[in-house]
Amino acid sequence: MDRTNIGAAFVNGLITELNLDSRLQTLVTSIFYVFYVSLELPSNILLKQVKPRNWFAFISIAWSIICMLQALAKTSTVFIVFRALLGAVESGFAPGMLAYLPYWYTRDEIGFRMSIFFASIPVAGIIGNPIAAGLASLKTSLKPYQMIFLVEGAATILFGIASFFILQNYPETCTFLTIEERDVLVKKLKADQGLATKAKLSVMSSIKAIFDWKTGVYCFGLFTINNCVNLISIFGPTLMKALKFSSVNSTYLATVPCVAGLIAIIISYFIPKRVPLYARVAAMNAMGAIFLALLAFGKGLFLRMFSFTLFGFFVYPAIPIFLSWLSVNQGGIAKRLIVSAIAFSCGNISGAIIPTMFTTKHAPNFVSGFVFILSSMVILVVLVLALAIYYTKENEKKTNNPIDVSHLSEDEQQMMYNNHPQFRYTL
């Protein structure tokens, strides 16, 4: 909800109360992502050292406290410091969850669970924007944006405390499963990808994962998708205000593409498995680009609102599908920890770049921002198709040239990651 509450705060008094000019508006948003991006990889490495229950509970509680502190900031400098701290504590959450879910599910099972988890992004918009608008409408001694930060932060802290008592660390130590159920789950996971408790991170394997050219494609893909999500979640109210709606109505209307996105994610659950993941990602980005172009350069209020809605419809389901594609194509948990963190780090650079193109200085047309996002979407479609062709050829090569690795130990085979002769890329 942090993506939605800062966007709502911008149009509900934050800019005028703290005297934020275009430069400071950019800094307020960008500083969050500078710290978020810088600490994602160290956070995922810490996840391997700290029990998930402790780690995710700490992130949630710390986020809540800092979110509430934002309401107390009297100057832009103090507010920017709080935004930096918020980025630091939140850095371990999304990439950590992407690494944590495969602790429990096989490669065939992970896609559906990933979709459920990342449905929280449009849900945050659906819930967050109306709540923010409602809070901003209340007549209190506090400024509208202060109510947004205080109430949303206070609500989240309860979930953070609850997660410490509910969340389980590993299948092997899960308390709500019987011994027989744990044994079945552990055997299934071990056969599929190894166990999280046994996964090992080495400096050399980490370096190889970071500089793998395929990691670069995933980084650019997540960067592009984040461009789209940030446009809706952070600057949705700004875009609506540029269409001459009031501040409160702009906050409400920013919910519309989120609703469409949630519907699309639910529909995506029923896409037949025979439709490859890469084809889904390419198609959704291509359609999203078309409706973004209509939103940016179309004429008429109805056309632009309709395009904004369908832009959200195609963007939001691309998130879990793309991340599932990333996750299942890493040959082991250890590599997935590194690649997911790097991809999230590079992807969230979007949060430091996009804000420079959607400040009040560029209103109401925001041409440079729209062109930038459109260009990245077109490039991503090309890269996804190229990666799919590469995966197809690699799978054929392994099938036609079998290699015996039975002389290697289980640990040595796991360290082969994608190069293991039995590993096949998922299209």
Automatic annotation (TrEMBL):
<feature type="domain" description="Major facilitator superfamily (MFS) profile">
    <location>
        <begin position="1"/>
        <end position="394"/>
    </location>
</feature>
<feature type="transmembrane region" description="Helical">
    <location>
        <begin position="337"/>
        <end position="358"/>
    </location>
</feature>
<feature type="transmembrane region" description="Helical">
    <location>
        <begin position="252"/>
        <end position="270"/>
    </location>
</feature>
<dbReference type="InterPro" id="IPR036259">
    <property type="entry name" value="MFS_trans_sf"/>
</dbReference>
<feature type="transmembrane region" description="Helical">
    <location>
        <begin position="303"/>
        <end position="325"/>
    </location>
</feature>
<keyword id="KW-0472">Membrane</keyword>
<feature type="transmembrane region" description="Helical">
    <location>
        <begin position="27"/>
        <end position="47"/>
    </location>
</feature>
<feature type="transmembrane region" description="Helical">
    <location>
        <begin position="79"/>
        <end position="104"/>
    </location>
</feature>
<keyword id="KW-0813">Transport</keyword>
<feature type="transmembrane region" description="Helical">
    <location>
        <begin position="144"/>
        <end position="167"/>
    </location>
</feature>
<feature type="transmembrane region" description="Helical">
    <location>
        <begin position="54"/>
        <end position="73"/>
    </location>
</feature>
<feature type="transmembrane region" description="Helical">
    <location>
        <begin position="217"/>
        <end position="240"/>
    </location>
</feature>
<dbReference type="GO" id="GO:0016020">
    <property type="term" value="C:membrane"/>
</dbReference>
<feature type="transmembrane region" description="Helical">
    <location>
        <begin position="277"/>
        <end position="297"/>
    </location>
</feature>
<keyword id="KW-1133">Transmembrane helix</keyword>
<dbReference type="InterPro" id="IPR011701">
    <property type="entry name" value="MFS"/>
</dbReference>
<keyword id="KW-0812">Transmembrane</keyword>
<feature type="transmembrane region" description="Helical">
    <location>
        <begin position="116"/>
        <end position="138"/>
    </location>
</feature>
<feature type="transmembrane region" description="Helical">
    <location>
        <begin position="370"/>
        <end position="391"/>
    </location>
</feature>
<protein>
    <submittedName>
        <fullName>Putative tartrate transporter</fullName>
    </submittedName>
</protein>
<dbReference type="InterPro" id="IPR020846">
    <property type="entry name" value="MFS_dom"/>
</dbReference>
<dbReference type="GO" id="GO:0022857">
    <property type="term" value="F:transmembrane transporter activity"/>
</dbReference>
<dbReference type="Pfam" id="PF07690">
    <property type="entry name" value="MFS_1"/>
</dbReference>
